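COMPLEX REQUEST
Ligand: adenosine-5'-diphosphate
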Amino acid sequence: MYYNEKIETMDRESLRKLQGERLANIVKHTYENVEFYRKRMDEAGVKPSDIRSIDDISKLPFMQKQDLRDYYPFGTFAAPMKDIVRFHASSGTTGKPIVAGYTQKDLDNWSEGVARCLTAYGATKEDIIQVSYGYGLFTGGLGAHDGATRIGAAVLPTSSGNTSKQIMLMKDLGTTVLCCTPSYALFLAESIENDPETNLKEDIKLRFGVFGAEPWTENMRKELEAKLNIKAYDIYGLTEVSGPGVGGECEYQDGTHLWEDLFYPEIIDPVTLQPVEPGQQGELVFTTLTKEGMPVIRYRTRDLTHLNYEKCRCGRTMVRMGRIMGRSDDMLIIRGVNVFPSQIESVILEIPEFTGQYFVTVDRVNNIDTFQVDVELRPEYYGDDMGRMLRLKDRLVGRLVSVLGIRPEIRIVEPNSITRSQGKAKHVLDKRLLNP
Ligand code: ADP
Ligand code: ZN
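STATUS: Structure written out below.
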């Protein structure tokens, strides 16, 4: 099922033409109205009249998070305040957050993006959609909410947290679709498993989950599908570009379709800033093609992934993005080796005796990096049988060494001692950053 069949299955030649027209418009509009864009284009020696097709995008300069910070809060806005109807902000772990402003048309396009995703997963107006993404400045809650409303489903806006109430409402109302971060879904699954009053098969009516806002792996998908007896679908997005629903998977779960009529994606080599060979991994860059409030042009997301332009079995012609390995700033360099938390997650989930919860601590002691991974065994495997615990630990170390190329110190901690996340999970403490 499609939400907007004409667009989602548009032949690529017409799509490129549409993208070219929209790019020319946005470049002209921002050049004429926003000092930030005018200055940068002048510096790069590009004029709006140079942008005639989508291929001309390579003439334009890139922008980054720091630019949005430097021009905080309104310096990159391209619509007058009278037309702005909503703000959101990304967490911004240090310093000022990134503030995004939306016009009504921006909100309409955003909710259409989410509606396309929900329809691709198979949601209809019959569904009861529980939105357990946080509501507020974070785009997750209201983004999913507006998309679910748009398809006429019944929205249950629980927001994040209060897990026992979430489960009670899920049972009593018969929630069929769950929207939250994959790490919160894992926590919900555990909580349902440990709740003597809830029988997953009998009491929970969930059909599928809409999981995103943080990197997750194929092994996590398998884990969530098995534990919650659902299909688990990816949804991707970021505040700077709009919010969740920049793209989503279809029933084939073979890549995340990006809504290219609204957001033009490129993959570049983060060092040379040149486009990578088709299909190669690199940094994802977006240009918003219709946004009025806060457009971005060649915005470097720092998300690492690859793109596949082959037509999908679902009939959609829109490009498919591979799993996001992480942001370039999530990458840890430990004793000279590059390590992504998502690689660690994937290995831990290969071994069913572990819960999938983990926490990484990196430090530097006597000029040598230390690398510790805390993991939990499921309660039934934790305990007196030291021999078995040691064998499991060895198995995990062996797999991590072969995948990462570096040996972590593994600590098996008590069940339930790693903090569960209700939104985006925090998996890493890099103490080297505290005292560089
Ligand atoms: P913040 O920057 O504060 O985390 P956002 O909510 O805008 O705020 O986060 C967007 C980022 O979340 C993306 O750039 C990406 O790194 C991550 N993300 C969102 N959806 C996914 C997804 N489906 N898979 C992997 N990473 C995701
Ligand atoms: Zn598809």
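REMARKS: The chain is about 30% helix and 25% strand. The first helix runs from residue 5 to 8.
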